[in-house]
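User: Can you help me understand a structure? I only have the sequence.
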Amino acid sequence: MVVDMIYKGKFLFWDNEVVQGTIIMENGKILEVHGPSYKVESDVILDYSMQPEIMALPGVIDMHVHFRGFNLSYREDEYTGTRGAAKGGVTTVVEMPNTDPKMDNITTVLRKIKEYEKKSFIDYAVYAAVPDSLEKLNDLLENWSHIMGFKIFPNDYSNPHLKNLLKGAYEKDLLVVLHAEDPNLIKEVDSPGERWKTRSIEAAISAIDKIYELATPNPPRMHLAHASSLEEVIEAKRLGYTVETIPHYFLLTSEIEKEMGAFAKVNPPLRSYPIAKALLEAVSKGTVDSIASDHAPYSIEEKNAPFIEAPSGVPGVEITLPIMLTMVNWGLLTIPQVARLTSINPASILKLERVGKIASNYLANIVLVNMKTEGIITADEFECKSKYTPFEGFKYKGKPILTILHGDVIYDGEHFIRPSYTLNISKLRREC
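Assistant: Let's start by predicting it. Here is the structure, written out as tokens:
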């Protein structure tokens, strides 16, 4: 038998064991997984069996990116965003809907999907925004198969159609992703390093509770985006939310915002060291379900505005996996934990079928990593358009070196190669 591609070496099998073996890929899927001595022929053989520092992991599923496009393509677009993702070992992204124009209607959603079909290097899906009319909401719910779910931002809390959206999401089994900051309890300040005091944890918890209460008695599947404290995690989990966080919330503090100003300005804000430390412990203990990048790029000119006026958001899709691998080398996480946080659990939260693991009949979306490669994060080397990061100068150990999508190498450590095809993963959801 001659197959499309073979990988030989270490890999994470299913979700809990790093083994030495052979991965056979055919027609975009993992055909079979065997021991190291298994014989099969292929024109493409990736043999790392004598390099124990290299292993194969399931490709990262980043549930939270803003790849902009449309009228904001000067910040990022589907082409540059997905190339950066591929470089970072990410094989699937789900894009947030605060685009321009906003994805609060099926016409704009379908237009965005067309942009991905033309430009993307990886698999993708989109969330829809809370519409400003029942007609738009009903159109989205009728065409639910095109979206992964809905994203609720703080300025949506007073939307008169929000309760109908939550009811419709429950009926269609769509995911609802929450940015939890109660707009009645937050305000901006013109003092870098102080925003965490006026955009408090209490404001986040209030939002978590309010949206849940609005959804009662039949809440849909709900997911807390970018948790910035342990308290948010505990409250959201108590109410049945799944929970994500972002590396900058547990590895950086408000001191970085004080030092870098708007170039470290994010919402929710970076918090104090004790808060970040407690969240880091929650990540290490497995209390948090998933890790995302919240890749939210802006131009340098926009970030150079006066601090109180400058927009919030930083790029991150290229560096999430190196940061997580570094935590393995620090002894804070294990390889199975990284895979659960970045691939296995996101696939489960999104209800994806046959995605997120290295196992027979799963999509052959794989990243090879070198656990001994060391370097320093430098924004000037980003593939993405925004060349800034609050992780500037961060010393990493562990790096993606090759990314595979549907059995095609799309990034080989230097060059990008167009895949045979990409998928809108909304079509891969399990039946309810």
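Now, to help you interpret it: The longest strand covers residues 366-376. The longest helix spans residues 201-215. Let me know which part you'd like to focus on.
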